[in-house]
Amino acid sequence: MLDSPWLWAVFTIIAAAAQTVRNATQRELTASLGTAGATHVRFLFGLPFALVFLLVVLIASGTALPQPSAIYWPWVLQGAIAQIAATALMLAAMSDRSFVVVYAYIKTEPVQVALFGLILLGDAITLPMAAAIIIATSGVVVMALKPGSSMGLRATLLGLAAGGMFALSAVGFRGAILSLGLPSYLMAATFTLTVGLVIQCVSVSVWLWLREPGVLTAIARHWRPSLLAGFLGALASQFWFLAFALATAASVRTLALVEVLFAQAISSFVFRQQITAREGIGIVLIVAGVATLLLSY
Hints:
Elements: H1 7-44, H2 46-61, H3 72-94, H4 99-106, H5 109-121, H6 127-144, H7 153-179, H8 185-211, H9 213-221, H10 223-246, H11 249-255, H12 258-269, H13 277-295
């Protein structure tokens, strides 16, 4: 199996790129499915592709499915449920007038994941890694916090809570992968992705069935465009999980901030939007933080 000290970084960049495209696809589905429906698509239509990924790994490796120990289940449940909670908090933030401010706080996730990773997994954070996390996160905050942005308590709490849930999700999934103790990180990551999506599909589907059954009907009607979003979501998650298997969640989520650069590039080159001086400073900080992170390995 491929192995390299830089492989986690390659996986992370692929995941961030796939996620950027998936986000654009999901935005198009929002008009027809609503925010909750477009969000559920990533779980519901991602699961079949995750099952295909798992089948390919099983055939290629010639090994049996893992037999998780009892400690595996709290970790994977933490990852799956925290991700749902984080998404729900983001949905609440989207209805807030201060969403740009909320987004800046959400992107404090690398700082929070470093703290949770240290406490829950014992993932060590070196001084260069800590500097990289702070520099890159500062770049995102500079880009997001426009002059005149409201700094209300609601925006602060929503953003920090969402970022915290995303951080707990990343740490939970990494903990689940590591707890399997498998020699194949590919099997550990793919199996955990599939289990996590099963939990999320069942949980969100039941919730929608009880609260908004019409959303499930709308998703069924729009299954064709949803397939692409599901595939891109599963593809992104596959590479996120591979990266979690090889590096600390803090390193992965810090490098993942390149997603902001990808989105900025789309705005600049596709939609011809001009980069402001503030955005330019943010980009420089993100690049500097990412460079510092990679040089620390």
